[in-house]
Amino acid sequence: MARILVVEDEPSIALGLKSDLRLEGYDVEVAADGETAARRAAEASFDLILLDLMLPGKDGLTVCRELRRAGNRVPIIILTAKAHEAEKVLGLELGADDYVTKPFSPVELRARIKAMLRRTANGDPETCHFGDMEVNFARSEVRRGGSLIEVTPIELKLLSVFIRSRGRTLTREQLLDQVWGTASSPTDRVIDNHIMHLRRKVEATPEEPRYVVSVRGIGYRFDG
Ligand code: CA
Fold first, then answer.
1. What is the pLDDT of residues 124-139, one digit of tens each?
2. Beta carbons of 157 and 179 less than 8 angstroms apart
3. What is the pTM for the complete model shown?
4. How far, in Å, is the centroid of ligand 1 from the Cα of 116?
5. I want to staple 37 with a disulfide (CB 3.0 to 4.6 A). Which of 31, 75, 96, 198 is the partner?
6. 53 alpha carbon to ligand 1 midpoint, in Å?
């Protein structure tokens, strides 16, 4: 049974989430403010944290940043109000794994939670398949329809980062950090260029990508 920490100060939303997720079979604990959330996340082990950003006292972004700084890798899904869209980008940059916009549909939220828990349970696969593609990380080989295709080291790295974060939106800053590292700093144009080349290799119709999807104003998401 997965254990979820719900961080939400609005009693009606917290209560709704709690009963809904319990019905789904999760073990749910609620924290109504940032201080409590940070303390509980540090002293107990959770499989996932649902984190509202607007909280009394310590806000959600601070909680997220502090957990990551302390080396806590618990999956975090942030809950943001539609009026504060910019916060989700910041949240993702601070180490949140996904976001859901309020008001959210319980069905969508449950799907996101399930996907996130499945991803963390699977860990890093050695070989990954999507469409007619096969990526073998151990051998650094990429096949399309069974035939070996050429990819550059950057493209392979991009694929690996995308696959590891499948279903989750990555900002250009995150891609930059995880693919190029801090030593070099390519511009957004360079990132977009590599994505374009990668699409030509993995997409049936690169101009209408099915796998490496653009997320307007944020970055990219891998839907493999
Ligand atoms: Ca709130």
1. 556 777 888 888 877 7
2. yes
3. 0.58
4. 22
5. 31
6. 6
